[in-house]
Structure formats: C-alpha cells, structure tokens
Design a protein that fits this description.
The chain has helices at about 50-60, 115-130, and strands at about 35-40, 45, 65-70, 75-80, 95-100, 105-110, 135. By secondary structure, the chain is α+β, with helices and mostly antiparallel strands. The strands form two sheets. A four-stranded antiparallel β-sheet has the order 3-6-1-7, covered by helices on one side. A three-stranded antiparallel β-sheet has the order 2-5-4. The termini are far apart. The model has no long low-confidence stretch (mean pLDDT about 90).
Length: about 140
C-alpha cells in the first residue's frame, strides 16, 4: 500500500499545475535527524509511486534496522483526462500525486546504521528517483 497519498484533503483538485522554482532549498539542506542522507541536486517533481519504491528498497537493504526519516510528502494532485475525450468540460480525474522538490533538499535521512549499509541503501534508492542525487554524511 502506498503511504504517500493523502487520506483526506480539503479540495479535490488544485487549479494550477506544479511549478517548481530553480532556487535552492534553504530549509532542509543540512542533516538534522540522521548521520547519512540523500540530497537532491536538481529541481523537479517526485511522484508518490516513486517515493514508495525508494522507501521500500531502503527498508529491504537495511533489513529493517536503523531509523529512516523521509523529509517530504506527495500532496499535490495531478489530473489527466482519459483517452478519447474532447477538449474542454473542465479538469480530468486525479491520476496521481506528486511532491515538488527544489535542488539542495535532503529527502532521506538514515541513523543507527553503519556507513557501508547506508551507502548501499541510499545509492539503490537514488536509482529509483528521476532526479540526480548525492550521498552525504554529517561528518
């Protein structure tokens, strides 16, 4: 089951598309809760399906040990019309959820794990993500 879909929300659809500025993220650009992290090097949007796949691969590589902190949640709905529908008549149905990410943001943080396991887990999670990432340490 996907953990990155909102259970309830005030408005079903949002009016504007996801707009991601190219300015770097100043809030979450240093490690706060863990020793190791995965930093995004370019701006973009990460879908909830990709987030869940990355989380699962990290949990699998760590054998369910250590603590994983995820700094982000996909809460912006993306709509699309079904095939064969003409233009107009409003927005389509919700097809997925995305999380807009600015460059420099740390999205995964690991703690209570040795360096080798953390490196392997976060490297394999970075292969699932559509953006360029970098493994960072607190030291």
């Amino acid at each position: 089951m996907n953990k990155f879909i909102p259970k309830n929300y005030k408005y079903k659809k949002i009016r504007k598309r996801v707009r991601i500025s190219k300015i770097s993220d100043k809030r979450l650009n240093i490690l706060k809760h863990g020793k190791y992290g995965l930093k995004v090097l370019e701006s973009g949007a990460i879908s909830s399906v990709v987030f869940e796949a990355a989380r699962r691969i990290i949990a699998k590589k760590l054998n369910r040990t250590g603590t994983l902190r995820i700094n982000g949640f996909s809460d912006i709905p993306i709509t699309s019309k079904s095939l064969g529908v003409r233009m107009g008549k409003g927005s389509g149905n919700i097809s997925g959820w995305v999380f807009p990410v600015k460059k420099g943001r740390i999205i995964f943080e690991l703690d209570n794990v040795n360096l080798q396991k953390a490196k392997v887990a976060l490297k394999s999670a970075s292969h699932k993500l559509p953006l360029k990432t970098k493994f960072i340490t607190k030291f």
